Amino acid sequence: MVRISLDVMGGDFGPDVVIPGAARALERHPDIRFVLFGDEALCQPLLDKYPKLKAASTFHASEIAIAMDEKPSQALRRGRGKSSMWQAIDAINTGEADVVVSAGNTGALMAMSVFCLRTMTGIQRPAIAGIWPTLKGESIVLDVGATIGADAQQLMDFALMGGAMARALFEIERPTLGLLNVGVEEVKGQEEVKEAGRLLRETGIDSIDYFGFVEGDDIGRGTVDVVVTEGFAGNIALKTAEGTARQIAEYLKAAMSRTLMAKIGYIFAKGAFDRLREKMDPRKVNGGVFLGLNGIVIKSHGGTDAEGFAAAIDVGYDMVRNGLKAKIENDLQRYHAMLPANAAANGAVGEV
Amino acid sequence: MVRISLDVMGGDFGPDVVIPGAARALERHPDIRFVLFGDEALCQPLLDKYPKLKAASTFHASEIAIAMDEKPSQALRRGRGKSSMWQAIDAINTGEADVVVSAGNTGALMAMSVFCLRTMTGIQRPAIAGIWPTLKGESIVLDVGATIGADAQQLMDFALMGGAMARALFEIERPTLGLLNVGVEEVKGQEEVKEAGRLLRETGIDSIDYFGFVEGDDIGRGTVDVVVTEGFAGNIALKTAEGTARQIAEYLKAAMSRTLMAKIGYIFAKGAFDRLREKMDPRKVNGGVFLGLNGIVIKSHGGTDAEGFAAAIDVGYDMVRNGLKAKIENDLQRYHAMLPANAAANGAVGEV
């Protein structure tokens, strides 16, 4: 059994997407038990339409719904304790849920998650890991927006957490990992990336196969299973890739409707275009994972539909099933034990 | 007449691409006069094949060719004064050329350009401006790799230079300009982006229409004419977009050759696919512009072909024709005159 708490009010469409999405995920994974938080008057009529989901869920009424444009600090002040977002996260603390999924606004969700769950021992700052479709399959890219300007130690932590997530998600033993960098050698700045590279090489963690530096075009190529970067560049890479995909889709649409010949060609090749569209479907890889907290939080796109939200639930389900949290804790512990400073501290006071 | 110096030995193919490329550009712009620097034994036989180009060119023999994988510091030590790259840049100092075009390695070209031309008065660090195809046409994105971790004042300089370049390249009077940022509000870090935004708003430069912050997906959308960012994020955005475009092209190719129906469709729609390919053709927008130096340097992709190199020459030609350097100097002067600190300094000692 996997217990998943849902912020039913989160996202552009709230219960209208979350409840049908949960019903779809339940079809695929009948061992899910949901803990739902939301506005009772809005949610109950919808839940009645999905009796199987209703039977597999516990519903808790929440007074407040966090708005999609609410500032994180305001959301925290207003929604602490009372909002569906907070309560869904807090279900991890109370032991009611193993993972939480929300399509609510990213800033508020991150602020509440940090406040409510706290960062893991040994982790200074959280990261958001995205699942990126590549020519070889999928890769994990982190951080895509939580920690702007991460230092070398934080990048190292991201590497450990991303490696653990790759093992949980892709079920590979020793994922390859690269540090995102620019190609020009001997440039000034980004000392933290070079330093993180040195740490990764020298500590020789056996749960990661460190590849070296990678560049922006290596992400889509699938050069490595895990790409590590700080949150500013990572967020810009993610959004730029999304924008480029949308741009090319527009070009393609325009090209295919321009002439009669092109239109005829489109009809013949429709199956192929459908496959392409499916391949590029952002709903299929919906679900950013917040890493580094005492609990796993899955962030769904706010504008997604039921299928997309179900995909985010799938990610949460897989993370629990494959023991992501234990994997991260284990890797961090082994890494910290490896550090000379901590080893000495361990010897002296028996504690890290 | 526009005088363009060429590093004939630069790029993966050197003279084999540079000389035919120059010949093509000359067809389009018969008022170009070329100053060529390269290995005489390699270049002269090729030049003999293009009599029109030969007649419009002055050839200078260079002893050294900079390798594509040479480190900038080594290239400077070995190639200073003697290499085709150095000599082509130096032709701006000697007054022989108005602009230089090289397909040589970016790091070496930037290092030599800074060393040989020096930064403009009032500019601390150079930027590389890329021309980015968008849904609305083209935008300028800078910096795409010269200045890692630019501070607020440097971002402000980039904005002025990018604005001037947009006026020169797109021939619009008051280009719109955005600062690249991440969407999450109230995040820590990137204070320099916020500070640059404040400077842009408060100084109210009339040569730029400041839009505000933009995100990664706004670049391809063409939300603004000029996107300003520091070099690390800019380089990663550029490479990620290139990677995504290549990735989708691969998907499309695979989809179109999978079934007989798709193949038939492809034949009918071939014209449309050709248009799409042309639209996505990286050669068409080949030519990064080094800004902030006492002279304009155009960097062509190293692996480009003759058409691509000709496109880079076209960019250089347009920049000279439309007075880019004077536009930048003028904008910088007006901006610096606007700053209260400098106004006081001007009053006191008559000099900035």
TrEMBL record, chains A, B:
* Catalysed transformations (reactions): a fatty acyl-[ACP] + phosphate = an acyl phosphate + holo-[ACP]
Q: Write the Enzyme Commission number(s) for this entry.
A: 2.3.1.274
Pathway the protein takes part in:
Lipid metabolism; phospholipid metabolism
Q: Where in the cell is it found?
A: Cytoplasm
A molecular function GO annotation: glycerol-3-phosphate O-acyltransferase activity
Source superkingdom: Bacteria
Q: Spell out the InterPro entries in the cross-references.
A: FA_synthesis, Phospholipid_synth_PlsX-like
Q: Say yes or no: keyword Lipid biosynthesis present.
A: yes
Quick one: where is this thing mainly located?
A: cytoplasm
Keywords, comma-separated and alphabetical: Acyltransferase, Cytoplasm, Lipid biosynthesis, Lipid metabolism, Phospholipid biosynthesis, Phospholipid metabolism, Transferase
- The reply to whether ATP-binding figures as a keyword in the UniProt entry is no
**What is its EC class?**
transferase
Q: What protein family is recorded?
A: Belongs to the PlsX family.
The family database entries (PANTHER family) matched by this protein are listed as: FATTY ACID/PHOSPHOLIPID SYNTHESIS PROTEIN PLSX, PHOSPHATE ACYLTRANSFERASE
Q: Which HAMAP family match?
A: PlsX
**Oligomer status and interactors:** Homodimer. Probably interacts with PlsY.
Role of this protein: Catalyzes the reversible formation of acyl-phosphate (acyl-PO(4)) from acyl-[acyl-carrier-protein] (acyl-ACP). This enzyme utilizes acyl-ACP as fatty acyl donor, but not acyl-CoA.
> What protein name is recorded for this chain?
Phosphate acyltransferase
